[in-house]
Amino acid sequence: MYSIFAGLISGADVGLSGMQVADSTTAWNSLLNTVYSIAGIVAVLVIIVAGIYYATSNGDAGNIQRAKNAILYSVIGIIVIIMAFTITQFVIGRAAG
Fold it and tell me: What is the signed CA dihedral for 55, 61, 67, 69, rounded to 10 degrees?
């Protein structure tokens, strides 16, 4: 119940100077860009490893299917990362003014 009203009180109201809005959005932007970069790197590494599995499957249907699924899910993950990046950049841009 109290957490609903916690957003209504700014730091200045209780004697805390805190960060300015521009500093806060810059910090969030930097943090989110780092998270998205790491997630993108992991997705690309999974695609590379899945490609190696595919190349070394020697015709085994199970390994081929596992590699194809890993590639598919990594591509879907990259699409989700791009969409999340776009949405958060829009929201942060609106918050910064």
Answer: 150
